[in-house]
């Protein structure tokens, strides 16, 4: 039993799976990149002028310009009074209105189904059907997540069997997306790497 003054959560009491977690987005490469950026900011001479963080797929952080249409639709969905504005093209207003009408309460602040907004799942299914040469994709088989991380975690957790003395193993490509190894470690499973050569 711990006394009232004794800390309950310490590095020693932290779940060992969390302590063993190494996520390259926050791992050694990330830390070194941050150090180099600080050095450059502080005027320390390097054989380069800036650090390009290409490990995340964060296109906007590396200078890619956002797609105007998407930004305009998001703006209108977030503030529907913009539907009355002459500042936005009609196609963005039309798309925003379709999305708003598909939302409960005509608000993007409303909860969606756990699998995602139906109209978006239907458009995703239509895209996949077209991409795959007409092979039907059922929108009820589309599960939208808030990003790759959430989706990968859901799938890996779904594939884990009941805890046994032997941990589950997941085959992942090497080099790999850092989230794979981090999540596998978090779930106390084993990484089985195969090389892409």
UniProtKB/TrEMBL annotation:
It catalyses: L-alanine + 2-oxoglutarate = pyruvate + L-glutamate. Its EC number is 2.6.1.2. Pathway: Amino-acid degradation; L-alanine degradation via transaminase pathway; pyruvate from L-alanine: step 1/1. Keywords: Aminotransferase, Pyridoxal phosphate, Transferase. Gene3D superfamilies: 1.10.287.1970, Aspartate Aminotransferase, domain 1, Type I PLP-dependent aspartate aminotransferase-like (Major domain). Its cofactor is pyridoxal 5'-phosphate. GO terms for molecular function: L-alanine:2-oxoglutarate aminotransferase activity. Signal peptide: none annotated. Transmembrane segments: none annotated. Homodimer. Belongs to the class-I pyridoxal-phosphate-dependent aminotransferase family. Alanine aminotransferase subfamily. This is alanine transaminase.
């Amino acid at each position: 039993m711990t006394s009232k003054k004794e800390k309950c959560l310490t590095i020693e009491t932290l779940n060992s799976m969390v302590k063993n977690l190494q996520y390259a987005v926050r791992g050694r490469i990330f830390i070194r990149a941050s150090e180099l950026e600080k050095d450059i900011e502080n005027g320390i001479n390097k054989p380069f002028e800036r650090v390009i963080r290409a490990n995340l797929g964060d296109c906007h952080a590396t200078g890619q310009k956002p797609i105007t249409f998407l930004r305009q639709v998001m703006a209108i969905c977030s503030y529907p009074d913009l539907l009355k504005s002459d500042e936005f093209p009609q196609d963005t207003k039309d798309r925003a209105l379709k999305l708003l009408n598909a939302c409960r309460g005509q608000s993007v602040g409303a909860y969606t189904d756990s699998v995602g907004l139906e109209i978006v799942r239907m458009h995703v299914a239509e895209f996949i059907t077209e991409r795959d040469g007409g092979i039907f994709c059922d929108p009820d088989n589309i599960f939208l997540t808030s990003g790759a991380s959430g989706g990968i975690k859901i799938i890996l957790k779904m594939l884990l069997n009941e805890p046994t003395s032997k941990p589950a193993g997941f085959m992942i490509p090497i080099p790999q997306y850092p989230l794979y190894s981090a999540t596998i470690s978090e779930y106390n499973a084993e990484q089985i790497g195969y090389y892409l050569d």
